[in-house]
Specification:
The complex is a heterodimer of chains A (about 325) and B (about 130). Chain A is an alpha+beta fold and about 325 residues long. Chain A has 14 helices and ten strands. Chain B has one domain: HprK N-terminal domain-like (Udp-n-acetylmuramoylalanyl-d-glutamate--2,6- Diaminopimelate Ligase, Chain: A, domain 1, 3-Layer(aba) Sandwich), CATH 3.40.1390.20. In chain B, helix 2 packs parallel to helix 3 and helix 3 runs parallel beside helix 4. The longest helix of chain B has 10 residues. Classes of the chains: A alpha+beta (about 325), B alpha/beta (about 130).
Amino acid sequence: MTDIKNHPITDAVAENITKVEELAYELLINQVMTRDIATISPADTMEFVANLFREKRISGAPVLNDGELVGILSIEDLIRCLRAVDLFSAVNKYMSTQLITVKEFDPVIEALKTFVHNRVGRLPVLDEHNKLVGIITKGDITRGLLKKLTNEFQQEEIRVYRASHLFEDIISTRTSLVLRYNIKPRDFIHGGTASSYIKRALMRLGASPQIARRCGIAIYEAEMNLIIHSRNGGIIRVEIEPHQITMETIDDGPGIQDVDLAMKPGFSTATEQVREMGFGAGMGLANITRCVDQLKIDSSLERGTRLKMKIFLKEQESFGDSRGNRLEGTP
Amino acid sequence: MNTQELINIIDGTLLTEGCDFTREIKGGCGADLMSDVLASIQPNAILLTGLCNPQVIRTSQMADVAAIVFVRGKRPPPETIALANMECIPLISSPYGTFELCGRLYAAGLPSLENPVTDGDCGCDE
């Protein structure tokens, strides 16, 4: 990891943070600024300032006169004073009165722009009545953006992380994860919901987009077949193993009269209503064949239809570490 | 091309919320048969279709479709829009027909992302 302390972001870098650019527009200055700040008055001696900077480990402070912001004093001003051996002078001799400030309800990007165009390390933040409410530094911005990024991505990341380590963390002779879904006949509104869950589960387990897509398309065609053709609906069963994915649909009728004919592209027994919905073009089984490595259809008019689809995963596509999660001496 | 550029080219109306306007669109595909879409479309394409039911969204989700354009000013029912919002797939309605839309998008440099039929009858062998 980069040590932010030893590699402070430069102005050029600050301007080019494209990935967090969006957040820089979303996040407000008062969400990242430092509120609890040390302030000094124009009459304070520079010696007092030197002690303050050392004690608080800060490199600058705003100068307030009766609550009004009148200047800012930075470590460079203090060095000028030290070189002149002039520590008993007052702050107002060395402070900078050409103030560059930002407003607390402005987006962080405004502060970033100001940093890029001015050689300053910190900016006083004012409220709508021009009262000082805080200080913002580049470090504050970096921290604020990182925190926001972490919060936004944490949830899905934790899900993906936990799921994708499932097969590594559990040791057995043969580990598999089984998902089951009940599918209602003619439920066109919810058709594809199970397939959607299955595709998402595969992504969370760390499947490549290509594998998730192939599985998604195949099981979606099969799910729609259950909805369109089955008498009483059916069951989808998906078994995920480190090296292969097996997807099955099971129904109890009416069965396919001629499987070879059903496999023929363009052959369909779908009704006009189903065709109007964009299905029943007779491409389903052909599509499934294209997406999976192995397709078995077992159908009879008495028992119904059982569709079994398999996708074999190459070594680099397998879930978890296929060597680390199996007991020795197993096939 | 991104979603915002697409909307400009086709005089489109965005029907969904929270759209990522910067998502890169790699090409296009036009079909009313969902199995044709599943059989031919490559990832990150826009889908031009006249079909408005929720299955269009499911199909698009399975096939990694970047955005859906409804041709001839068609407006999908609320359940379709709700599903699209949930799955974060932008829906756009355009007043033009499929032929006009394909022409405009092709002219703007958007290629076809439809796999052609290769073996004479179905395109099922790659």
